[in-house]
């Protein structure tokens, strides 16, 4: 009879107990624990023990140690220890011919900057190319911030140029640092350029960046100013909200903090803010992108016919997505295509645009069905007689037609379509959200009554006016835009309400100016919350 074997297969738990990590794995595990608990001294002790035991070290070991050292390099109590061991660890890594990666270089750059050596930090970043590794924005930050702090302007600008060459984009912290550096070294033209970089990069600024701007305009910009021609044309060409031609006007700046009314009027200076559009170049690129994609997906002859027709009929101020409106809330048993809903939108847009008919894009199959219905025929024929309808051919996608028409004619688009699929496909869609905000009109029907949500009266972005003033939105925790503070920066006499409230430049005091005050003051200072009924085309909008 067979006897039971004493060499049975071990259970999973038995396997686990018999498995021992090698020294290198144990070292990394313990190092990672130190990294998680932010225990620099324990990590250094482990490193010294590993050296004593001749533990074979790899890139992960060195990177974890470098990261911990760089983290403590700005801590006054641990700085000396972090710097001493940080550079020692890096030298050891290089001596073993272990190639650094982006994380390694970022850590050693941070250590160098903490020591005040921006040159070495930048030198390390440039050496990444030797290892076929691309730097990230964080890799450049230590050198950039170090040069900015030490007011070494030319070196900081060199770092910025290298960032640009690598195809990386500056974010608010880096732009604010360069702006402050330029202000502190009296480089007014640079300040102006960084203000525009800030405008392109963020919708609103942090409190820290706001303070940098206040300091510049209050104390250091009083001698800058010159008149520039063709400002209005530049603003229109750029889509509103900025001209980019340099400082406008002369004299000291007046700096205030205040709110903006729902209609876009600044409560500090009375100036009307713009609803900012994409510029002429972006618009043309956008139109070409839409047309190119449409010609790939549609029958070319059909879409080209529409393009030609649009060239001859370019006076429309609003495009209507007919299918989107006609099928709105029709998902019930008796639901179908609502001609009454579409007609309500057509008539409302006609009234708002000063008796100009909108263009409705609708598939020919849908139009044919409506004409065959006796109860709808007369209304549809009326639309056709007024030049309201463009019927898209069999097999076409309406979306390409109404999107192209809106972009090409730079007019409004009535639809609730979020156009997410278009964002995914379109080239250069980084400006798509700005375009949508400026052009899309949303709608609802409450108990059969139409309510349109027009584009906002103004854009919550940094704005530069024709008069040379600046309006800068500041970060706000509330979702209520009326509570957002703005930095209002003007020159004396530049705006209609200038001088009513606020501080003079000699004091550099920033005074908050509110639109809507306590109830007892509202009779004297009303907030007009009535927004513009019809935005219209850009060419007819005042900058």
From TrEMBL:
It comes from the Eukaryota. Residues 261-488 form the PRORP domain. The keyword Repeat applies. Residues 1-22, 524-543 are annotated as: Disordered. Residues 15-222 form the PROP1-like PPR domain. One of its GO terms (biological process) is tRNA 5'-leader removal. Its EC number is 3.1.26.5. Its cofactor is Mg(2+). InterPro entries: PROP1-like_PPR_dom, PRORP_C, TPR-like_helical_dom_sf. Pfam families: PPR_long, PRORP. GO terms for molecular function: metal ion binding; ribonuclease P activity. Keywords: Hydrolase, Magnesium, Manganese, Metal-binding, Nuclease, Repeat, tRNA processing, Zinc. The keyword Transmembrane does not apply. Belongs to the PPR family. P subfamily. PANTHER family: PROTEINACEOUS RNASE P 2, PTHR13547. This is ribonuclease P.
């Amino acid at each position: 009879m067979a006897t039971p074997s004493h060499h049975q297969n071990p259970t999973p738990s038995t396997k686990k107990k018999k498995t021992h990590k090698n020294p290198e794995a144990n070292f990394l595990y313990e190092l990672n624990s130190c990294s998680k608990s932010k225990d620099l001294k324990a990590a250094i002790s482990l490193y010294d023990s590993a050296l004593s035991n001749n533990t074979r070290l790899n890139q992960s070991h060195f990177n974890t140690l470098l990261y911990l050292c760089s983290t403590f390099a700005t801590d006054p109590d641990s700085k000396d220890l972090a710097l001493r061991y940080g550079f020692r660890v890096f030298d050891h890594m290089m001596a073993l011919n272990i190639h650094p990666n982006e994380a390694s270089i970022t850590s050693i750059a941070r250590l160098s900057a903490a020591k005040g050596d921006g040159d070495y930090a930048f030198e390390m970043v440039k050496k990444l190319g030797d290892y076929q590794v691309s730097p990230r924005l964080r890799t450049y930050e230590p050198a950039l911030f170090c040069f900015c702090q030490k007011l070494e302007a030319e070196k900081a600008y060199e770092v910025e140029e290298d960032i640009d060459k690598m195809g990386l984009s500056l974010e608010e912290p880096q732009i604010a640092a360069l702006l402050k550096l330029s202000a502190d070294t009296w480089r007014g033209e640079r300040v102006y350029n960084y203000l525009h970089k800030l405008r392109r990069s963020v919708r609103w600024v942090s409190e820290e960046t706001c303070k940098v701007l206040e300091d510049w305009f209050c104390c250091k910009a009083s001698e800058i100013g010159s008149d520039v021609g063709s400002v209005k044309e530049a603003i229109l060409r750029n889509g509103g909200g900025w001209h980019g031609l340099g400082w406008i006007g002369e004299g000291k700046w007046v700096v205030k903090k205040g709110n903006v009314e729902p209609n876009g009027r600044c409560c500090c200076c009375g100036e009307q803010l713009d609803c900012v559009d994409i510029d002429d170049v972006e618009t043309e690129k956008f139109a070409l992108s839409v047309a190119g994609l449409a010609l790939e997906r549609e029958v070319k002859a059909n879409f080209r016919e529409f393009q030609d027709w649009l060239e001859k009929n370019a006076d429309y101020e609003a495009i209507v997505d007919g299918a989107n409106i006609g099928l709105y809330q029709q998902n019930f048993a008796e639901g179908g295509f609502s001609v009454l809903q579409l007609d309500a939108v057509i008539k409302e847009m006609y009234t708002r645009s000063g008796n100009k008919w909108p263009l409705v894009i609708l598939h020919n199959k849908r139009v044919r069905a409506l004409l065959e219905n006796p109860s709808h025929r007369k209304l549809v024929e009326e639309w056709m007689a007024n030049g309201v309808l463009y019927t898209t051919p069999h097999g076409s996608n309406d979306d390409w037609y109404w999107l192209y028409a809106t972009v090409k004619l730079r007019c409004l688009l009535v639809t609730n379509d979020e156009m997410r699929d278009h964002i995914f496909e379109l080239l250069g869609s980084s400006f798509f959200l700005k375009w949508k905000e400026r052009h899309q009109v949303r709608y609802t029907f409450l108990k059969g009554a139409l309510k349109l949500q027009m584009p906002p009266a103004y854009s919550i972005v940094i704005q530069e006016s024709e008069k040379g003033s600046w309006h800068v939105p500041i970060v706000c925790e509330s979702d209520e835009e009326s509570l957002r503070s703005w930095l209002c920066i003007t020159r004396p006499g530049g705006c209609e309400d200038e001088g009513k409230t606020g501080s003079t430049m000699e004091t550099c005091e920033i005074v908050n100016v509110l639109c809507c005050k306590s109830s007892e003051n509202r009779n004297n200072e009303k907030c007009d919350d009535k927004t513009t009924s019809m935005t219209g085309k850009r060419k007819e909008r005042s900058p």
